[in-house]
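Figure-free illustration: sequence to structure, shown twice.
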Amino acid sequence: MELIRVPALNDNYIWVLADNQHQCIIVDPAQADPVLKIITSKKLTPVAILLTHHHNDHTDGVKGLLKVFSTLPVFGPKETIAKGITEQVNEGDNVAIGQFNFQVLALPGHTLGHIGFYQAPYLFCGDTLFSAGCGRIFEGTPEQMFQSIQKIANLPDETLICCAHEYTLSNLKFAHHIWPENMAITQYLTEVTTARAKQQATLPSLLKKERNINIFLQCDNPELQQKLKINIPNPPLRAVFTLLRQLKDQY
């Protein structure tokens, strides 16, 4: 498989995953034109579009792609019905086309119906988990987002986090603000600052890496809890997560 990162809008990434038969799936097309340019240049044939949630910066390219590929199936949660899906999918469903076989994961929080698509090692998680951070909670609850991130955390170390935005640098700045003594975060902040100055992408990210530099995956860490001034033993992890998310919102 070849994973292709397609920049769009200000900081979006559209993902294209191609097999060795030159067939591909397109994930969260914010725009049609960048995708059409890539698949034309690489002589790829799209076989499906996958949508993680209903926000326009993940769905606005569907219409333009369907003008060119009118019979292309579009898979997504119920909340994307108005965005052009032809196949509604839910937790536990599989999207199987040719060499592609994605497991659908319910990942509510950012939106109520948010889903992810997982085919090892690729996880297309939309706006749920970012590198060094997580998505804002617009429709769901902190409890839902915490559970969604726990579901991702239970995947194998070699999982590639294919999220939809280049937010790594800003997320690391917040993490460093919260936990300046964490050397893994400090070192990666330096690396990413250099990479972004050269306009290099930081995604996809390995889940193994995220376990070390993403504070939203470390709510059980006593040192982090101390930094958050949580002084009770064994606090509820969802409460730690909720506080972190509130602090990030205010940062």
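We now fold a second protein in the same way, so the two outputs can be compared directly.
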Amino acid sequence: MPSTIFAPESTPISTIEAIAHEARAGLAATPKTLSPWLFYDEAGSRLFEEITELPEYYLTRTERSIFAAHADDILHEAARNQGPAGKLTLIELGAGTATKTGILLAAAVRQQGSVVYQPVDVSETALAEATDNILSNIPGVTVRVQVADYTRQALPLNRLNNTRTLALYIGSSIGNFAPEDARDVLRNLRAQLLPGDTLLLGTDLAPSGGPNANKTVATLLAAYDDAAGTTAAFNLNVLTRLNRDLGADFDTENFRHRACWNPTESRIEMHLESLTAQRVHIPANSAGPALTIDFTQGESIHTENSYKFTTTAVEALLSSANFKSTKSWQDPQHLFAATLATAI
């Protein structure tokens, strides 16, 4: 019988304290920064789901099209080392509402009759929505939910007897980490897998050169600065969260969303730019004393990076974390890649 298990978060500090520590460290730094995990409160998670449906945001629909075309092949390749009687279990890092994952879960059910799915995310709201959608639409799936921050905590991998694990890290989430941090995230995952387990890694591809390139810098910038302003609202919501959770006094009207392409680092950057010279306060709390932050006009808070990859860079990243790339699937325009790698 399908089941849903919500495990308690194991972090030793409260969410509010974690937010306070992050805000104090990032806003006191030069240049000012905020970690992208702060985006994903209930409002931020909802806005991100809206972003994934925007016409400019090609990433989600392109990755979904890869899964729709190749899900059976992906699951077949992942199952090569499972043994004659074993099954795959699927664990997903940063699962969110798992809108694309259902395609892979349906393929797993077709291949082996049933499947256990372990989504991991910081948002309990998103996981509850994912669970409802999956259990309503894909018979044969057992869902075991874990509310946790996989970037800071040991992964809650619940290995079942006589199974191999297929870990999903899709949506180009790995691109939000600096190269050394991306390697550490994958090494943390690898440390909890067995040789022969597999990882499916989704990566957004870097723009290609030449006048007939399928992906241009303009395509990238539009994906992170849409005409409807949804990405701007998503970015600005982080200040609203600090006001609500920490009692800060950011005036969101005094900041604007800005996206830019950094070709040297091969990444899109998102910033919140101060439109005026201003002073912001965060009251004292259990994480520390009161904090005053001064902004000059034009100064920004760097809120997110989204690294873009070549196929060579993907293979090098996987190798640095003790994975061996085994097969990759791309859309016809070569915008996005889903790469299967084996733990070695």
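Summary for the second example: The first helix runs from residue 15 to 27.
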